[in-house]
Structures are given as structure tokens and as C-alpha cells.
Queue: 4 jobs
Job 1
Amino acid sequence: LEDLRECLFCLRAGATLRDKLTLAGATLMFHFDKRNGQQPRLIEATVKIGALRPSLRLRDSGGDVFIFHEVLNDQVYHVKPEWLRGEPKVVVDLGANVGLASLSLAAQFPQARIIAVEPHPETAAVLRHNLGCLGDRAKVWEAAVSDQAGTMRLSLANENYNASLVRESEHGVDVRVVTMADVLAAEGVDRIDVMKIDIEGAEKMLLSGSPEWLKRVDLILIEMHGDYGFAELKRDLIPAGLTVEEQGSAQGMARRLGG
């Protein structure tokens, strides 16, 4: 039944018959032939995401198809109007992967700038293509984000979305690391209306100690990993004036109340 539900979504999301069949075929391949150990192949299809029509590239193994359905079909980054203090002007996507959350948020908030941060070189290349439909609205930072700038080892995994600064692996790549202060200063951003965080365990380094920049964020959607749970999230975000709500077993939402 899940396979059928996802294939039906592909038929709705694809812009043309070819796009619909390409997406449905990739979905079935993901479920029945994961091609473990083989070099992933790029598929390309124009998809309908609100008013956007991005030419979307996905790798047929390594998890891109899973993320496609999680973000666009299951709408895990749908923002409820009551969470917002106003029309978002700046959206920051930390751990942007191939850009599906960025595109979802860009479609929800057509007036917002999108700042997408992704350290994995191969994934960042796909991300740039996928955000191309946004033009000057989107800026891609090929970097990891943490509490200190420099260079760190990014451990790689079979699933492209599981690359991590904190987990160990036989395979890895050295990546640039920036701080949120670096990003905000370079982009000329005073306030972040919506921030999505999915950085595979590095949230502890990023958020511990309630850094000053958190006071400039109005809404955070976060996926937590490892030993960083809701107790730690509340410890770090409440001093910055944010209230924290559980949205799932490892998903949280934090927002700033008041005018």
C-alpha cells in the first residue's frame, strides 16, 4: 500500500507524463532494487511544488528518493500559519541535502530568501541544480555549520543524507566549516524567520550554550540525533526566548511567541 501511495504521488507531482513515469520508476527501484554498492545514477524530472516547477535531479540510490517522499509527499516541513510571527523573509536550511526542504519552504513562502547550507560536495552540486529555479532568491553554502569555523572530517554513509561530522566511518572527506555568525554576516541577515536543522548529530555543537544568534531566529524545525534530545534542546533554546514543542520521536519545533 505504501508503494502504491508513493507512486500515485509521483503521478500527481510530475509535470509531464515522462516526469510522472520517471519519478514512479525511481520510487519502485528504491523499494525493490536498492542497487547497493553500485554507483548511483542521476534521474531528472520537472515537478510541481506549489507554484514552483523545478527541474529536479535525484540519485536513484542513497536515499534521495526516500527524502523526496518524506518532504514533498509527507510534508514533514509544512509550516502552520499560527507558528509564524509574520510573512517570512529569510529561510535558512542547515543540512540542505539536495534541496527538497528548501524548495518546500520556498513554495510556502514565495517572498523569502533561501540560504541553504550543505557540506557534502556531491550533494551540494545536486542542490545547486535543484535550487536553480529560484534564481537570486537562493544562495548555497557548500559547508558544514558548527560552533567554530575551520575544517572537519565529514564521515560518509551509504545513505547520502547520513553524512556526519560526529559519527565515525571508513570513508570521509574534509569539508569547510562555518559558524552561523559567518553566514549571517556574509548574507547581511539580521533576522531568520524560519530555520530548518537536520545536521546528523552536529546540532549539539551548533546549539550548546544557547549562542547569541538564536535570539534572532523566530521558528526552528529540527531533527535530533544521538544523545541530543528534547531535554538538551530545551536547555539551549529556552534561554534564547524560544518555546519548544515535540513534533515526533526525534523531531522538534521551537518558536518565538509574542509580537
Job 2
Amino acid sequence: MIGTLILPQYAFSTVYVIPVKSQIEPGWLLFFERSLTEAEENKAQAIILDMNTPGGYIDTAIEAKNLISDFTAPVYVFVSDAALSAGAYLALAADQFYMSPASTIGAAEPILLGGGQVNEKTLSFWEAEMRTIAEKQGKDPDIAAAMVRKELIITNMVKGGELLTLTSTEAERLRF
């Protein structure tokens, strides 16, 4: 979707709004790549990912993060409802993210297709990815890690045995 938005640094700007309204999976990644290519060809000054996702595949999210990192214009995320799991990762991968009232971000514990727990190697890798991307945004990496690991405890925020998911109000209060 193409729109015109007045940004402070430009009189008129071409901004692409790209929906993330389902799982982050290989089919969505192809759509995302095509959208970014079109945006670049049309000299878009910004991309907004309009996000409401339960998450998706780790490898797809990492490929999408690389596309975001390589894109020449700023990429923003607007969490309209939920940025869970791989969605939380992509929100943190963007140049900035914003949340609507009553939206949520977090619950990023990886699970195997068909259910079940992943091995420690995969869990450790994903936790490190979440920490790294949070640090890039200037956000608390421990908060991102608590979205991945149930056993992490953050006083007055999450107790052991629970994954961290933040409301928009909590995220704002924590500067996350």
C-alpha cells in the first residue's frame, strides 16, 4: 500500500505500509521482499510494518531482519494488536516501533512445529538474537530475554515459569 505522509524532513514523502497480519513464514517473506523492492524502486522515504502477528518461523524472521537492516530508508513497526514471538523480534529489528493502546509484545519462546520444546542450543541462540536486537534499539536486553525463557525472573515484572508479554502501557513505562 502506498500513501503520502508528511514527515518533518520532507515536504511530501512516499511511505509504504506493509501488513504483517498473519504468521511470519516463507510465503510472507516473499511478499515482504517484493514490497521492499517496489518501495525502493519508487524511492520510498519510509516503510511502516502494520503488525498483528502471533509469530512464526525463526529462520524467516532472521531473513526479514536482514532485509530490514539492508533497506536504505527507515523501517518502522506499528503494533496494531500483537507482536508476539517472531513479531516481537521484527519490531525490535526496525528502526523504531510504536504500539497502539491495548496492544502487546513478547511471548517469544520458540516451539517445534507440531508442539514441544526446542533444544537448549536453539533456545540459547534465539535468546541471544532477542538480546542483541534489543540492545541495538537501546532497550533492556533482559526484558527481551524474559520473552524467550520462562525461568528468567525480573522483579515486579515476571516471575519464574512465565514468559514475559508486555502491554503497550507496560512497554511505555519500561521504555521498551
Job 3
Amino acid sequence: KIVGTRLALEGINVSLYPPETGWPNSFDSRANSICNDVNSKKYIGSLTTHTYGDGFSNPDILIPKLQTMKSTANLCNKKLWITEFSRPGQDAKENYWSDGKYMAQHIHNALYYGDVSSYIAWEFYDAPQPIVNKSKSKFHRFNTERQYIRFIRPGAVRIDTQSGDSDF
């Protein structure tokens, strides 16, 4: 509210992207505070969060939280963005195929259950768990994320598909 008002007074027309919560459990209370304040809400472009705090190797554990965040964003009439996600607590020198699989599942769940319109991996380069390191080595998470970046273009539309195979 304070920042948005000041920017407007200065003639700076930009959108703000809060609440930037690090943990999904704190998203709703912070987002609701913003959305329930008409002065704050008018400066908001999208609601944003991070999906840290739950196991990288168990992507489906976030589904209920993604659904709740989606509902909050819908009630606020705002898009939902995930502005940070990483593979915490593991050695970045490891390059497991399972990391790519888990990353794909996290992105899919965010798109499908959270209806997110932006998904950004933190630690893309030169970080404790990078997707691309200083030697330009690309980890499997890079290849996974590249598929979404490369093939989902502006204006793309998601469609629902079903499989008769229980493994898919």
C-alpha cells in the first residue's frame, strides 16, 4: 500500500508482485491481507510465492497447497506466479536423471493444480544448487525446464488429456 501509493504519486506506473512468501503455508494469510485491502490490491500485478519447504523428491505433496493458493489468487482476481524453486539440501555436483523427473513433476503440478502463469527456478546459474554451473555444464533439471521454456510460447493454451494407462 505504501510503496504503490508512493510510486503512483511519483508518476511511476508499475505493478508490484507480492507476497513473495518463501513457504506455501504463509502464502494465504499474506495474500489475503493484500487482497482484502482495496488500496493495496490495485497495485498488484500477480500474487507470487515460492514452493520451498517440502521434499524435492515428493512433488505431489504440494498439490493441496497449490490448490489452496490457486483459490486465493482466483478470489483476488490475480494470476499466481511461482517466482522461486530449487532443489535444496543436495550436492550440486550430482547430476541425476531423477532430478529432471522431479523437476518436471513440480512444474506440471504447478501448472495443472496451481494454474500458475509463471514458474521460475532459483539458482539457475552459479549458486549452491545450480541448473547450469560455471563450467557451462547443464544438469538434468536444465533439460527439463528447457522443454517448458522452449515449447510453451506466449498465447499458448493448456488442454486436458487423459491416459488409459495407470502409470501416466
Job 4
Amino acid sequence: MAASAGHQCSFPSCNQRTVGPGPSTEYVSNSGYAAHIYAASGGGPRGQGGLSSEELKAAGNGIWLCGRHAKLIDNNRGTTYPPEVLLSYKALHEARVLLEHEGLYPPIGWLHEFTVVQGPIFSGQQTFQLAKLNLIYGRNETGKTALAEWIMGFFDPNPMERWTPVWGTDLNVRMKVLNPKLQNLSMTVRNSKLSYSIDGRAVPFIPIGFRIIKPSRLMLSGNDDLKLLASCIGVSELVMNGLLAEVNSFPHATVSNLRFEYEHGDDEEITKQRLLIADVQGTAPGLSLRALSGRERERIVLELATAAARLSGRYCPTLLILDEAISIVFEGFFDFYSPHLLNPMNQFQTLMCIPERKLDLNNVKWNGWQVIRMKGESPQVSISQDIRSEGE
């Protein structure tokens, strides 16, 4: 674990070296700690999450920290730093070490905490922490999309247009960002005016380079797949072939050999319509986009969006938002996609919104997701990071 962490503390913005020269040349001084994420004993901080004894002992259940932060995460039985947050810290840090080892030094940025101070839909002040993988989970009309739009609104005012009518309810939200030091951002909508502040100082916009990738739902309209997918992912048509090449070169992708081919007309003449052809795991190779099932098409959208976020995350802080783009959450969805999204090469955060359904939230958390649960009905919705249902 120490080597994977580059012998540095994995706590965001710390990066303290934990190894160095000892009192003489034949000694080395080591001040690091291999801290458990899920507790080694039944009564330990953060519980054991249903893990076996072998899983509890595995390196995947440990995070390398300096002495100060090893003690900090276990205070108050670890409630401030739940397992999914520590898994995110570990993934973020190891991704940074991997990139530095390859000679790349991207800026570090991390959305850490979000607070609704005042606003429509929600009852009173609501706060939740953000991890590497975040699932906003609840019934329809409980503010899942609103939270995604407000997070986006800190870096792009366009999603806030529908929240700024003259008759609208005042909105006041805050977000803590590690950039790499902790910065407190505020966004307010009052009297149809949008305003921001950083650490209490008013600014006309948030000048922090944070990129949002938010694919839309794939609608099979028109006949040109290149135009269709560029619009869905939110990129220029000019870069789509490069994005396909990024997916094809990623060793952990679940689709491969993506390419555009010109369609042939009835008289076998080549038309100007471009078809996407792909090999999707679990089905026949070389099928066109329109010959695939809805679930398989969504896999292609997710791979393209992930590729865009991966490229962006190498050079600037990035958030991938999966709201309307994923509508088919099949059995085993989180087991299938979580290792892919947690891969150290994917140095970005993910925020996914899905309606409430039969779902094993313990399994979702074990797969590294921070569950942000919406409870109640508008305008009295509350936000909880307790995965239990009301009344349980």
C-alpha cells in the first residue's frame, strides 16, 4: 500500500512523505500507517460492511496515511469519513501517483461537500459529502436532477436559467472544493439574480477550472450516427473519431473496435450517412448502433462519456454526471461498472441519478459508491446518507 501511494499520505491536500532517511545511512524512517477502511474488528470504526476475514485483510481494504490523518479518520467511530469516502481518497491519490509516475502532473480538484442552505423542494438545511462515485437515489420529483444542476451551476451558469424566474423561490447553496486547499463556494439566486462567492468574497463567476461531462439520453432520430453521438456526449463532431480511438485503446473498456462507416443506399452507392459499428461484449461483433439493444447502446454512450471524462481528468478536475443518459439499471449493474469507474486511470468523480427501485444498497456501497438518498416529498424532501429506508 505504501508503494502504491508513492509513500505519501493519501488524504486530499496532504501528500506528506511518509518515508525518509533514518538516524544513519543503514536506517530508514517510516512515519506512515496502513489504516483499515472497513474495521479489522467487529467493534471498530466504520464497521465491517459484511466483508469476509480475507477481504478485511486485503490491501484493497486499506489506505496509506500519515499519523495525523490515520488518527483523524477514526475519530467518532469514523462517522465523518465513511468507507466510500476513504475508497475515493485512495482511488484519487493512487490515480495522481500513477500519472506522476508517467510524468503527468494534472491539477488536483475534488468536490468534497454540498449544502442546500435554502431552496425549493428541500426541507431546511441539507448537507452531504461527495466521494469518487456518488449515487443520488430516490423517488421521482425529489430533487435528484435539481442537485445535479446546482452542482453544475457553480461552474456553468446555463443550468441555472430555470431557477432564476422573478417568481422563483430564493436559492442558497454552498460547496466545499479541494483545489488542492479547501475552498468554500457559495451560489445564491435572489430576485432573479445569480451571484457567487469564494471564501466569503463576492465574485461574478467561479474561476476554478472544473469540467463537467453530462451525456444526454440517446434518441435514435435521423440517420447519421456521428451527429447523433456527438450531440449525446456534448462534443464537436470533429473530435468524435478521436474519442472512438480513446475507447478502443482503453484496456478496460467493455466495447471495442468502434468505427464509423458510410451507409450504402439501395443502389449500393455510398451515402453521406455515417453508421457506428462496434463490438460489444456479450453479443455478436460488428453490429451497428441501431442493431443493438437499448442496454447495449447505453453501454456505448457510457464508454464514450467515460473516455471524454478520462481525457479531461488528465489535465483538469472533472465530474461525470449520469442523469438521463442511463435509464436501464440491470441486475449486477454496479458490480459491472464500478471497477471500471474506480479504475485509477479514470481520474474523475461520477455523479449518477436514478429513481428509487429494488436495489441492494449495501452492495452498492461495497462497490465504492457514496449513496445520497432523497426522502419525503417536495417541498419537504430531506437528504440522508443512511442507506436504510424510512421505518427500518
